[in-house]
User: Which sequence fits this backbone?
């Protein structure tokens, strides 16, 4: 079956998980390759089997080249120890899961490979990222959508993954079922410290305090797991790491050249995993 037909079938079977991002009404129908709400707002399926919910084209800092580098780094396992912790705290492994700002899809795919069952949907505002996700991974449903105008139904999701991506706690609260979890992964002070040290030697150290405070405001009972490890890198992966991290966007070209020629053999990954539950 063609990917676009599979996508139609998925949506037909899961209409209750979505709502129109314009008028918030339910979707009632798929006509041809368009999903239509009761007010006749319609959204296109792509040949790759994705659904496009953006109301206007978005500007994105991540180009395809960076996304490819991020994918290679992900597939090489930079974040695997973090993802193993993430899956260990998911309460309902056979529930409905949503990866917010999923990028090119490798994290959600890895979670599925490690035993995440149920229904899995990933979305990102970047069309390039979602195209890459859908081209490689067929174990989840992928949408282009904006968290600020999200097309997800209320009280319908068991788990939200929010890995290194923006949050909207009001929206998370709306779409989660009662007892559902937000699992948010944020960098800690020493995350990629080897690169950070080059970016701004005189800068104050990176702090995630604001992000953590905001999370605890919304989920005062939140659990937290800290994780820290070093990951070995070969030269190729070092170049991809520099290419994919927003940190290196602030490095001028001569420093970047120097960094490329003096590769680090190990990189530090230090992160916080925050787990909030909707009452
Ligand atoms: C640092 S990347 C992380 C991507 C992926 N979670 C990962 O860890 O590889 C942040 C992602 O959030 C996405 N993003 C930013 N604003 C968004 C929004 N309003 N709605 C959906 N995704 C958004 C970006 O396009 C980008 O892919
Ligand atoms: Zn509508």
Assistant:
């Amino acid at each position: 079956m063609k990917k676009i037909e599979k996508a139609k079938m998925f949506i037909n079977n899961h209409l209750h998980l979505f709502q129109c991002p314009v008028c918030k009404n339910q979707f009632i129908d798929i006509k041809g390759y368009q999903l239509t709400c009761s007010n006749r707002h319609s959204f296109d399926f792509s040949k790759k089997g994705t659904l496009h919910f953006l109301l206007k084209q978005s500007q994105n800092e991540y180009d395809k080249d960076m996304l490819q580098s991020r994918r290679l780094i992900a597939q090489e396992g930079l974040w695997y120890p973090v993802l193993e912790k993430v899956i260990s705290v998911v309460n309902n492994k056979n529930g409905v899961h949503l990866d917010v700002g999923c990028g090119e899809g490798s994290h959600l795919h890895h979670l599925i490979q490690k035993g995440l069952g149920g229904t899995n949907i990933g979305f990102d505002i970047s069309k390039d990222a979602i195209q890459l996700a859908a081209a490689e991974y067929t174990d989840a449903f992928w949408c282009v959508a904006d968290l600020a105008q999200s097309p997800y139904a209320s009280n319908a999701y068991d788990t939200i993954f929010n890995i290194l991506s923006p949050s909207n706690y009001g929206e998370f609260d709306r779409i989660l079922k009662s007892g559902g979890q937000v699992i948010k992964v944020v960098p800690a002070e020493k995350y990629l410290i080897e690169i950070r040290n080059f970016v701004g030697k005189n800068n104050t150290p990176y702090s995630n305090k604001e992000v953590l405070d905001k999370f605890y405001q919304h989920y005062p009972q939140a659990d937290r797991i800290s994780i820290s490890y070093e990951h070995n890198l070969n030269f190729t992966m070092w170049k991809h790491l520099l290419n994919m991290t927003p940190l290196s966007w602030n490095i001028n070209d001569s420093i970047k050249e120097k960094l490329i020629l003096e590769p680090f053999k190990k990189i530090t990954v230090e992160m916080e995993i925050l787990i909030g539950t909707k009452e």
